[in-house]
Amino acid sequence: MFFWLACVAVLVAAVAFVRRSRRNPLRLIPGPPAVSLLLGNEPQLLEKSVGEMESEWHRRYGSVVRLKSTFGDDRIMISDPKALQYMFNTAAYTFPKPDDQRAIMLQLNGRDLVWAEGETHKRQRKVMLPAFGGPEARALYPIFLSIVERLTTKWQDIIGRNQDGSYAELNVHSWLSHATLDAIGEAAFDYPFGTLDDSETPLGKAYQNFIIEANGVRDTARIVSDGIMRRMPPLLLGFLFKNLPGQRLDRIRQTKKVAYGVAEQLVKDKGQAIAEGRTNKDVMSLLVKANLAESGSRRLIEDELYAEMSLILLAGHETTSTSLTWILWELAKRPEVQTRLRDEIVAAHAQAQDALSLNDIEKMPYFQAVLKEAMRIHPAVFHMNRVAAKDTALPLFKPIRLTSGQLVDTIVVPKGTRITTSVGCYNRNPDVWGEDADEFRPERWLSDTSTSAKGASLGVVGNLFNFSSGQRSCIGWRFAMAEMQCFLAELIRNFEYSIDPQIQIKKVGDGIVIPVVVGKEEKGSLMPLRVSLVSKD
């Protein structure tokens, strides 16, 4: 009896699956065949550096690609500028983050701006915006300069200790991670981490390499576990994250505990300072001040303030250090670009009365071109996942041909569809950047040619998607741009960079795209560059 019931159940499930597949409008969107019934196309993403397989698919199938995920689920990957503009600028709250990702974010940081959706997101963003304006970000430039000068001194000392004094091979990603953590501590919280000086504060220690260690390595087991988590109710997933044992989960819980403890004291101290008429320019002081100015129902509650501090730490240091790492790597491969850039920086520095200001840097055309081109080629985050909250018609900039042969300029996305918005593939979309979109060519930014698809501009900097777009764009983008420009100008002015031709670098990462050395993946994030002092003659 049980056997026949099981057979009937399997038959009913199979019929339901076939009927659902036939009704699914996504089935006609072109895409690669699945390599596994269980894992779909997911294993292919592990075979190469992050972005390589995705770029191949977009070149072959177009700017909308259907993929098979775990357990036969369909998802689509999009790099079409008009579709992305609609999702992020026009109807942002129609495409929230998936529930499983939000449940993880809740355990990681709490009820912060990245976790929030809808009215909660609008309220939080309104309170936080005054702390992240243009003048506020520019006022922090002296802090960034002091940190990068400290880093410069460290590197000069290491190079000087070498017997021949020619160069030192440095893991620049680790150094930059320490430096940007110190910068975020002082600029955002007026809190000295001291990681460059090997000082150990509890918060500084907790956040060193946190994102890398918390994300872990994506492998076959991780693909399966992610697929299972997508099927779990958010409350159950949250309960498991709170209570399951494991090194990764213990690290997440401990870091959050330390961050909230420090945040509680900082909020108390800064609130007291404001009450006494003492003001400071750090982000947390401005945030507490802006929050106090709101009416009761519009304010952030204390746990939200603590969560925002944790978010600023996470989003504000690893993404910046990783972006700078990839920029230096790109320049190390291109000595002619590096030399031209350095010449422009040195000339501007000679004209400045003192150290370069942010205004000075922003007036350097080649510097701006190199920075934007490196950001375009090497986004710190390659993908952002969304889910359709309702059946939606997505407009396309460039029509796609369905497997039925029909040419369409709109696709119907059913409610519940998981959408991978590809930052990296959009940033290399030939419809936006031209047929040489895969090439590193800073000169594209020096011409009058538009870098946007007609009627479909995106992002907050140079039509790049790195900081997202619209209502969900990165609130700290001005902060990040000021810091990157400051660091890059000083690091190029003082040092020359080259690569060891025997070392092969691979991009990995489920969130932030980090560098590893092929053959030494078990050592984690590594970007060894040969760093030498700039000749003064």
UniProtKB/TrEMBL annotation:
SUPFAM superfamilies: Cytochrome P450. GO terms for molecular function: heme binding; iron ion binding; monooxygenase activity; oxidoreductase activity, acting on paired donors, with incorporation or reduction of molecular oxygen. It comes from the Eukaryota. Pathway: Secondary metabolite biosynthesis. The keyword Transmembrane helix does not apply. InterPro entries: Cyt_P450 (IPR001128), Cyt_P450_CS (IPR017972), Cyt_P450_E_grp-IV (IPR002403), Cyt_P450_sf (IPR036396), Cytochrome_P450_monoxygenase (IPR050121). Pfam families: p450. Residues 1-20 form the signal peptide. Heme binds at residue 474. Keywords: Heme, Iron, Metal-binding, Monooxygenase, Oxidoreductase, Signal. Its cofactor is heme. Belongs to the cytochrome P450 family. This is Cytochrome P450. It comes from Heliocybe sulcata. The lineage of its organism: Eukaryota, Fungi, Dikarya, Basidiomycota, Agaricomycotina.
